[in-house]
Amino acid sequence: MRREGTICLGIESTAHTFGVGIVSSNGEILANENDIYRPRSGGIHPREAAQHHASVAHHVLRRAISRAGVNLGEVDVIAFSYGPGLGPCLRTGATIARALALKLRRPLVAVNHGVAHIVIGKLTTGFKDPVVLYVAGGNTLVTTLHEKRYRLLGETLDIAAGNCLDVFGIKAGIGPMPAPEEYAKLGKVFYPLPLHVKGMDVSFSGLLTSAEKLLEAGKAVPDIALSLTETIYAMLTEVLERALALTQKKEVLLVGGLARSRRLQQMITEMVKIHGAEFKPIPDQFLGDNGAMIAWNGLKMFLSGHETSIERSFVKPRLRLDETEVTWD
Ligand code: FE2
To answer: 173 C-alpha to center of ligand 1: Å?
Structure first.
């Protein structure tokens, strides 16, 4: 049976995740399949991650098609994330997207990955004009839509919040997130750590050094994990509160991989009450990088007249959130 509406297939490949999502213009997410590259040791290696994406792409694509109950011929639009991200990973996704668009003779749409995180959040929460805290392994920023662009109200001046927690967890021997948050639940002692908040900007590298010093001094890992997570989440809640007070908006979205943190969600729930605003968590499967967010954002762009020619479909590893003019939302 032919599905109603316009169907878009989206490809996500900016970093660890190779994802394929399929969505329909009635707002239905028909499939959201992914395969995540896990480095054997240390951080992400861009070329290894790209090789991973190339080797799993056909499996993920097949799974998505079968989960969605469509055949490839029924797909009307192909979307892909063209930045920001790791060059080799982005190019792998873009190559697959171009090949599909050419083979199926369908239009191609290049999507800003950061904007897509927000746009899928708006779909799943029903929010219209939120203030957004975007927190992940590589991003920490506060933004809101103003005159057709997601303006940066504040950001980290050094490392991302997720990166700070991941590095701490690895150094403590418990592994990256969510391990630090799990260990924090067992913590009994809170060590006051320095808060680095300037306006709506934050900084985490000094905090990481302080936590490392506690590790070297032989303090219990759960206690340090408790102190570090509580301090980071308090800083993030603080800048979000400042953004809310400035913009006077009434909706709050928390997006990106670190947005899965139940403790951070809890702190934000408490904070918004003071401002008469509303916060709704996004379902976990749409918080980390995923293909559905690219498909949904690509579909909205396509329906408002956007299309990317093959010749202009190059990737932009350093693409910024506010580089994209949002004319479809
Ligand atoms: Fe992301």
So the answer is: 25
